[in-house]
Amino acid sequence: MTDSNTTSALGDANLRGAHVIVVGAGFLGRVVAKQLKSAGARVTGTTRSEAGAEPLHAMGIEHRPLHLTSNSRQTVLTRSLADADMIVYAVSPGEEGQTVVFRDALLGVAQATNGPLVVVSSTGVYDADDGSWVDETSHTTGIIAGSERLLWARPHTAVVRCGGLYGPGRSPVAWVKNEQQRKRASNGNQLAWMNWVNVEDAASAIILALSHGEGPFNVAHTPVTREDFYGEACKLAGVEELTFRDSGYGLGKRVSSTRAQSVLGWQPRHPTHVEGLRACTKAVVE
User: Fold this and answer.
1) Dihedral (C-alpha) 22, 24, 30, 35: value to the nearest 10 degrees?
2) I want to staple 100 with a disulfide (CB 3.0 to 4.6 A). Which of 47, 71, 96, 210 is the partner?
C-alpha cells in the first residue's frame, strides 16, 4: 500500500511520470525507489556494481551501475545522470569513506544536473551533546555539513538529515537478541537522548522534499532515551533488558522535526519508537 505522504507528493504534476534516479539504492534508497515507483514515477537505482541489481530488478526498478570515487570524471557523472529529471543522493560511505561520498562524489553529482536534488544527510551533523534541542539553525560540523553549505547556492536542492535508520532487515528488535550487538547497544549513557526514524518514514520525507523542499530538513521521530528505546526493543524481542555501561558519554541531543512537518507536510506513520519498533516485529511475523 502506498504511504499517504508519498501519494500526496506524487500527486504533483512535476513528479508524476518524472524520471528519478536514486544514486545509492541501498537500505534507504531501495525504499525510496519502491515508494516512487508505486506512485507512478519512472525510477532508476544505482549501486556500486552489477551485484546490486537483483533486489532492484525484483521490484521492477531499473538498475544502473555507478561507482563513485574521488577520481570520478565529471563527464562520466554527467553522462550517467543526463536523463534524470530529479535525483536522490542516498549513498552511504562504505569502503570509499566520507570524503569521497560526502564531498567529492556528492559535489560532482550536484553539478551533473540542474534538476531537483535531494541529498540524504544525518542528524549526526549536530555536535550538541548536552541533551539540548537542535533544529536546522543549530551549529553543524563535519565533512557532510561542509558540503551542505556548498550546496545552498544550488537551486532546487534539499538536504534531509535523517535520524538513525531502522526497519525490516535492520531491526533493533533483532539486535538485542545478538550478544555482540547487545554489548554495543549497552555501551553508553542510558539517559542519553537518541534520534531514530523508521526507514519507511524517512523515504516518504525524501519524496516530499523532492517536490516541495529546499534547504535542510530534520527527519526523526520523537526523541527517546537510550534506556527507553532498547527497553522497548527487548520487550518486543522477549529478552532480558540491557545493562548499560556509562563510559563517560554525554546526553546526546534532541532533534526537532518541526520544519519537515510544517513545510513538507511530513506526517510519519511511526511518530515514536514504539510504533516504529512494533512495525519491525510485524514485518518479521509477516
Assistant:
1) -20
2) 96
Are the C-beta atoms of residues 214 and 156 closer than 8 Å to each other? yes
What span, in angstroms and rounded, lies between the C-alpha atoms of 76 and 255?
Answer: 38
- Which phi and psi angles does 91 have, rounded to 5°? -85, 135
Query: Of 164, 145, 171, 264, nearest to 221 (Cα)?
Result: 164
Say what the alpha-carbon torsion angle 87, 91, 96, 98 is, to the nearest 10 degrees.
100
Is residue 5 scored above 90 in pLDDT? Answer: no
Contact 113, 120 (CB under 8 A): no
CA-closest candidate to residue 260, choices 224, 216, 222 = 216
Under 8 Å CB-to-CB from 61, ≥6 apart: which residues? 25, 33, 34, 37, 43, 44, 45
Q: Does domain 4-285 have CATH number 3.40.50.720?
A: yes
Whether pLDDT at 146 is above 90: yes
Cα-flanking dihedrals φ and ψ of residue 48, to 5°? -65, -25
Least confidently predicted of 100-104, 257-261, 267-271: 100-104
The reported pLDDT for the residue numbered 125 is 97
- Identify the pLDDT of residue 247: 66
Interstrand relation of 117-122 and 130-134 (parallel, antiparallel or unpaired): unpaired
